[in-house]
Write a structure and sequence with these properties.
By secondary structure, the chain is an all-alpha fold. It folds into 2 domains: about 180 residues, Growth Hormone, Chain: A, CATH 1.20.1250; about 220 residues, Growth Hormone, Chain: A, CATH 1.20.1250. About 80% of the residues lie in helices and about 0% in strands. It contains 18 helices and no strands.
């Protein structure tokens, strides 16, 4: 392909990869306005985020086999159509219950783009260029959390929260046009693949019974659920408790997103001296200490708005070390079932994030404590699972891949927010 085609394909794949981050982050500043307009509570609106995360967790398991069986474009078109229709449903809803349902359907549709983009990178680019393309996509994904809430804040403040979902539907429609006109088909459909539940579940079971996958997926997944507790609780904390404006909240969110983006880049440098196992332990230990400080400080009334933001920034820096290294170690044992392992890992991570988000909503009491408490719990539990799992399963983990191979994979890890 020539340089122009190369650029257009990466642009489309980058747009597909950012659908979910934009859909998660762009409407956050509108939580109070949505609650007031739908005559409901903030905690009910928070459940629409939980339902979105559940939809992503379920959708990833759905699209993996479909993309292999029917080719890349047909499931992608179906997913994007569902995303657009459900986005319009979100914009037109008149109840919290309908919003929760529409957000679930929006996620199931939108994650088709996320899964298909990764598959198409493998299809369309030679092995020598894969790392470079993934790095470009990672950069696009990492920057989106800095743009989405700020854009959403200004849209909500000027024309209302309904237009956030209309804009998301319009962006998706433009992406579909780009897919139709400029994106190659990728790998052809494989009609020999079985979509019977028994065959799919057999592949998933072969992955789950691997001790290395289980330990790092659980430890990394529970640890990485902490930002979803922050995402769910931060609109109420900053907009209602600290009374910042929608625009100010957008900038606060962008600043805290920079913690994960920056630490992900630092992780690449640290991997030259440390192993992924060491970096995960460092990250979860640091987050555990900061989580305990956040809880104690909240109970003692030690923190104001700016000191809370500083501690949250330091806590979220740990995610840039946790996520890519846990992902690399989880997937390292697999060559044959890498697709199933990736789908299971992503689904588990989003499922744990959905649970953390739901717990913050259920514990809502008008204070900062539910948010920081769940964040601390995630870090502590992740660390305990890592330490216990490594000790119990040590004899079974003697044949892990060489650290250099894991380092290479971890350096390409994505910082999704």
């Amino acid at each position: 392909m020539n340089r122009k085609q190369h650029f257009i394909i990466i642009l489309i794949l980058g747009a597909l990869s950012t659908i979910s981050p934009f859909s998660i982050d762009m409407y956050l500043p509108g939580f109070p306005a949505i609650a007031a307009d739908l005559n409901t509570t903030i905690e009910q609106v928070q459940l629409s985020l939980t339902s979105y995360l559940i939809g992503i967790a379920a959708g990833q398991l759905l699209y993996g086999p479909l993309l292999d069986r029917y080719g890349r474009k047909m499931p992608l078109y179906a997913g994007m159509a569902l995303y657009i229709l459900s986005s319009l449903g979100c914009a037109l809803t008149n109840s919290a219950e309908t919003l929760i349902l529409m957000r679930f359907l929006q996620a199931v549709g939108g994650c088709a783009g996320m899964v298909a983009a990764m598959a198409l990178v493998r299809d369309l680019f030679p092995v020598s260029e894969t790392a470079k393309v993934l790095s470009l996509l990672t950069l696009v994904i990492a920057v989106s959390p800095m743009i989405a809430p700020t854009l959403g804040a200004y849209v909500t403040a000027t024309v209302g929260w309904h237009y956030v979902f209309l804009i998301l539907a319009g962006i998706a429609a433009l992406i579909v046009l780009g897919i139709y006109t400029s994106l190659p088909n990728g790998t052809k459909p494989d009609t020999s693949l079985s979509l019977r539940p028994r065959a799919v579940l057999a592949n998933f079971y072969a992955v789950i019974k691997n001790p290395q996958f289980l330990i790092y997926t659980l430890a990394g997944g529970i640890g990485s659920a902490a930002p979803f507790a922050y995402i769910s609780g931060s609109p109420d904390v900053f907009l209602n408790i600290y009374k910042v404006s929608e625009q100010e909240y957008g900038w606060i969110f962008a600043f805290l997103a920079a913690a994960m983006i920056g630490s992900t880049q630092v992780n690449t440098l640290l991997l030259r001296r440390f192993t992924s196992e060491q970096l995960i332990k460092i990250a979860l230990t640091g987050q555990t200490m900061l989580g305990i400080l956040l809880v104690l400080g909240t109970l003692g009334g030690w923190y104001g708005q700016y000191s809370l933001i500083l501690l949250l920034f330091l806590f979220l820096c740990g995610q840039g070390l946790n996520v890519p290294n846990a992902s690399a170690l989880s997937l390292a044992p697999f060559a044959k079932n890498a697709g199933s392992a990736s789908a299971l890992m992503g689904s588990a991570r989003m499922g744990m994030g959905a649970l953390a988000s739901a717990i913050v909503s259920l514990l809502h009491n008008g204070t900062v404590l539910p948010m920081v408490g769940v964040m601390a719990f995630c870090a502590i539990t992740g660390l305990l699972i890592l330490l216990a799992g490594r000790k119990i399963a040590a004899p079974m983990l003697e044949n892990e891949v060489e650290p250099a191979e894991v380092r290479e994979a971890a350096a390409l890890g994505e910082a999704k927010f």
